[in-house]
Amino acid sequence: MGYGRLGEHEPEHSQPEPLTDQPDYNTSPPRTTKRKLLFSFSFAFILASAVSVSLLVKFRTTGSGESEAAIRARVAVSQTCSITRYPTLCVKSLLDFPGSHAASKSQLAHITMNVTLQRFGKALYFSSAIRNIKMSSLVRSAYEDCLELLGDSVSHLSRSLNSAGSTQDVLTWLSAALTNQDTCTDGLAEVRGPVRSVMEERVRDLGKLVSNCLAIYAAASGVRNEDFSGVPIGNRRRMLSAGSSPGSVPRFPRWLSRRERVLLDTPVSSIKADIVVSKDGNGSVKTIAEAIKKAPEYGPRRTIIYVKAGR
Ligand SMILES: *[C@@H]1O[C@H](CO)[C@@H](O)[C@H](O)[C@H]1NC(C)=O
Ligand SMILES: *[C@@H]1O[C@H](CO)[C@@H](O)[C@H](O)[C@H]1NC(C)=O
C-alpha cells in the first residue's frame, strides 16, 4: 500500500515504464532492475518510517516531559489574569517571577503584589537619581509630587504584601497606590521637557500593575460586593496641597486638584473661557445664572465661565 505513494514521490519509479513500449526482446533485463529497485525502495521506506517513528516518540517525550508543568503554570496564570483589565501585562509579569509556576490562586495574588512592589521600588530608586538636575519650578513640582507619591505607594504596597491589615485595609491601600499613580502621571502630563519623558518612562505600567493587583487580590479574597476587576486607571486623582514643604502656607485648599491649581495660576488673558458673562452684551450671556444653565451643554469636562468685571 505504501508503494504507490512511494512511486509518486520518487521519479525513478516511472523511469522503467517507457521501456515496456520497447520491443519484446528488451523486457527481461528491465524486469530484474525493476524488482531490485522495488526492493531497495521498500527497504528505504521501512528505514524511513522507523526513523520517523523514533523521531516522533522522542519529540513526544521531550515535549510532554519538559513543558507540562510550564503549560499548567501558564494556564493557572492566564486564568488568574483573565479577570484583570491588563491581562497581557499580568501574564508577563507573573510568569517572569520565580515560583509563579507552582503557585495557588492566593499565592498568585501575593506574587502580583510582590512584583508590583518591586517595580515601584525600582521606579522610585531610578527617579530619585535625577533629583539634582536643573528643572523649572513647574517641572520640579510635578517631579517632587511623583517622588512623594511613589514613596507613599511603596509603603502602601509593602504593608499590603506583609498582610498588616484586614482585606478591606489592603483594598484601601491598593486603591490609594492606584490613585497616587494617576496623580503622578496627571501632573507629568501638564509639564513639558526631558524630565517628563524620563519620569513617564520610569512610572510606565505602574498604574496598570496596581489595577491588576486589586483585581486579583479582591478575587482571591472573595470580595464580591465591590467590583475591582475592571478598575480603570487614569480617572483617579489625589489632591495634593500646593505648598508641600513644611511651614509654607498653602495657596490653594487641599481638595483642589493639580489641574485646577495650574488653571488658577494661569493669567486670565491666556485662559480661553467657554462662556463669558458680560452685562453689556459683549459676552456669550448677560447673567451668571444664564451661564450656569448653559454649562451642561459643554459636556462632562470642566467648563470655564469668565465673569467680566462691571455692574
Ligand atoms: C518577594 O519576592 C522576593 C524575590 O524576588 C522574595 O525574596 C521576597 O521574600 C518576597 N516577599 C514577600 C513578602 O513574599
Ligand atoms: C462692547 O463691544 C463694542 C463693540 O463690539 C464696544 O464698542 C464696547 O466698548 C464694548 N463694551 C465693553 C464694555 O467692552
Please provide a written account of the structure:
The protein is mainly alpha-helical and 311 residues long. Among the domains are: 87-225, Butyryl-CoA Dehydrogenase, subunit A, domain 3 (Up-down Bundle), CATH 1.20.140.40; 258-307, no CATH class. It has ten helices and two strands; from the N terminus they run H-H-H-H-H-H-H-H-H-E-H-E. Strands 1-2 form a two-stranded parallel ribbon. Strand 1, helix 10 and strand 2 form a beta-alpha-beta unit. Helix 4 (105-128) packs antiparallel against helix 5 and helix 6 runs antiparallel to helix 7. It binds 2-acetamido-2-deoxy-beta-D-glucopyranose (2 copies). One 2-acetamido-2-deoxy-beta-D-glucopyranose (NAG) binds at residues 114, 161. In the N-terminal section; belongs to the PMEI family. In the C-terminal section; belongs to the pectinesterase family. Keywords: Aspartyl esterase, Cell wall biogenesis/degradation, Hydrolase, Membrane, Transmembrane, Transmembrane helix. It holds the Pfam family Pectinesterase.
Number of helices: 10
Assign the CATH topology of the domain at 87-225. Answer: Butyryl-CoA Dehydrogenase, subunit A, domain 3
| CATH architectural label of the domain at 87-225 | Up-down Bundle
Q: State the distance separating the first and last CA atoms.
A: 105 Å
- Bound compounds, please? 2-acetamido-2-deoxy-beta-D-glucopyranose
CATH class of the domain at 87-225: Mainly Alpha
Low-confidence stretches: 1-28, 55-64, 232-236, 241-248
Q: Which structural category do the helix and sheet elements fall into?
A: mainly alpha
Percent range for β-strand residues: under 5%
What summary fits the major beta sheet?
2 strands, parallel
- Strand order, largest beta sheet: 1-2
Order of helices and strands: HHHHHHHHHEHE
| Silhouette | elongated
Number of strands: 2
Pathway: Glycan metabolism; pectin degradation; 2-dehydro-3-deoxy-D-gluconate from pectin: step 1/5
Region (Disordered): 1-29
Domain Pectinesterase inhibitor: 72-216
GO biological process, one term: pectin catabolic process
